[in-house]
Amino acid sequence: MASKKEAWKSELYGDEVREKIEEFAEKGVDAIPEDERDKWFTRFKFWGVFQQRTGQDSYFMMRLTNANGVLDPGQLRAIGEVARDYASGPVENPEFGDAWVDLTTRQSIQLHWLELEDIPEVWEKLEAAGVSSRSAGGDTMRNITGCPVAGRDKHELVESQPLLDRFQEDLRGNDALSNMPRKFNISVTGCREGCAQDSINDVGLEPAKKEIDGETVTGFNVRVGGGLGSRKPRVARDLDIFVADEDRAYEVVRGFVELYHEHGNRDVRARARSRFFVDEWGTEKIRDLLQEEYVDFELQSAGENIRDEYTYNAGRPESDGKHDHIGVHEQANGDYYVGLSVAVGRLTASDAIELADIADEYGSGEVRLTRRQNPLLMDVPEEKLDDLLAEPLLGKHTPVPNPFQRGTVACTGTEFCSLALTETKARTARMLRWLRDNVDVPDDVSQLKIHYSGCTADCGQANTADIGLFGMRAQKDGEMVEAMDIGVGGGIGEEPSFVEWIQQRIPADEVPGAIASLVEAFAERREPGQTFREWVEAEGTEAVTEYCVPEETDFEAPYMHDAKQSWYPFAEDEAQSEQTVTSD
């Protein structure tokens, strides 16, 4: 029997949902019948419109979509102006103030505190600049991810941007495939670093080469069934398929999308993700059915992959290659791109607008987003680099961050998410400053990947970090407080591995001390040149657990109260929140 949400989607989903959102926006949120709100808000997600967490019932988040993180000239400015004009909440965030944009781990952007009545105007302003929210949420093909410098990378192995654009327009644009069993992620890696992280996507293309008719050709191998969340992460499995040109790559991915669309589990949502589908069917059966029913050419066996060269979030020494896109890097045409570090991926609206102006002044105006919540300024001539790097905004969002800021990712948390158990963004921003000021890192270590997810859904990709944090709750001194599980040793690369969870339910005010003890042990005990991931593998998790000592420090731990029970972590009191929520 299909789930309740499947029944709702079967009645109305996809592009038709927009008309209903506009209708409700004209009448006001109160026009949505109370007993039908779950149904409508489930459908709204297709157009990237999410009701915020309990207690914020009149406010919405909007997620945008831009394949491969590409923002054409003017688009970031339009997004910043929308944030400035429409994304102001009733309570300021103590770290970030009011009106901002959040950069995500899928190379896209989220806006918060939108009111339903303003959604049509927001769409009008964004779409005038070519920005869309279509298919940005719900049970859809989500934002297509890839190498953010595709077409510009000096060392690109396989051209991927035309294929990414085709997936965006022809595959994600197909309303007949809009109602998937669950959300579905597609990635394409065309570079040697592996920055699209194909191993944690539902279907991923990775660069490969194969001898065909006596000639070595480049193309892609295909992997399926990767994903994170619910403490049941999976590495994408090799489908033993090589595709040597854009048309065949498109057809194979489309074939797997259609196969999963038709045969994926629609009865039990907890088992509906493609990683469980691949578990149950196996890659051989999927490949056979693809050949028989979904593609009209003979599938070739996998080619020689280049996974041994992957360095992006791979826990390898920096001498092996880039582990992110921060810093100044030469493009294939002799210009440069400059990757900036935005702490926890949050840009104020004014900073976003200023960044768009800087992108215009010094480069082509194009801005690209990475899977590590950071922006890249593209196409900067060498003679303009010094002036660009001297801009005051680049002192705040620097291309040369300290190792803690450089490596940290944080999800939305209880500020807006109904699933999260802890506040994430503001706490992490404070923790980064404390770690910077109190913990020494070896001179040859430029990054430590610390990822914080407010719950086990793992939107912050904690499973893939050097140090992963999951939001939890725990008792301390007779009170329920925010807490975290701590894991170590995750990473992507040639052999993806997920963290081993070594501490559970540590009160949030003791977590910075635990991280400090881990990093200090790493600094003292590592072999010369050894990365954190390599050190964890060498020491073993039993020994590393002993080094991880939770303790209170002089870190000022804000928001220790159980924010899950409040309408907003930073509201002064419930009386104020009740008045604010009902005032609309």
Could you please describe the fold and organization of this structure?
Keywords: 4Fe-4S, Heme, Iron, Iron-sulfur, Metal-binding, Oxidoreductase. The chain has 584 residues and is an alpha+beta fold. The chain has three domains: 1-137 and 341-396, Alpha-Beta Complex (Sulfite Reductase Hemoprotein, domain 2), CATH 3.90.480.20; 150-309, Sulfite Reductase Hemoprotein, domain 1; 405-547, Sulfite Reductase Hemoprotein, domain 1 (2-Layer Sandwich), CATH 3.30.413.10. 31% of the residues lie in helices and 19% in strands. It is built from 18 helices and 21 strands. It has helices at 4-11, 17-27, 37-44, 75-86, 119-128, 161-171, 246-263, 274-281, 283-294, 349-362, 385-389, 393-396, 403-407, 425-438, 511-525, 532-539, 541-547, 574-582; strands at residues 49-51, 59-63, 70-71, 100-103, 109-115, 145-146, 186-188, 203-212, 215-224, 237-243, 304-305, 327-330, 336-339, 346-348, 367-369, 375-380, 408-410, 450-453, 467-476, 479-488, 500-507. The strands form four sheets. Strands 6, 7, 8, 9, 10 and 11 form a six-stranded mixed sheet that branches. The protein is globular.
What is the first-to-last residue Cα distance? Answer: 39 Å
Profile the largest sheet.
6 strands, mixed
CATH-defined architecture of the largest domain: Alpha-Beta Complex
Cα-based radius of gyration, to the nearest Å: 23 Å
Oligomer: single chain
Domain Nitrite/Sulfite reductase ferredoxin-like: 56-91, 95-129, 329-392
Keywords: 4Fe-4S, Heme, Iron, Iron-sulfur, Metal-binding, Oxidoreductase
Domain Nitrite/sulphite reductase 4Fe-4S: 138-294, 406-547
Protein name: Ferredoxin--nitrite reductase
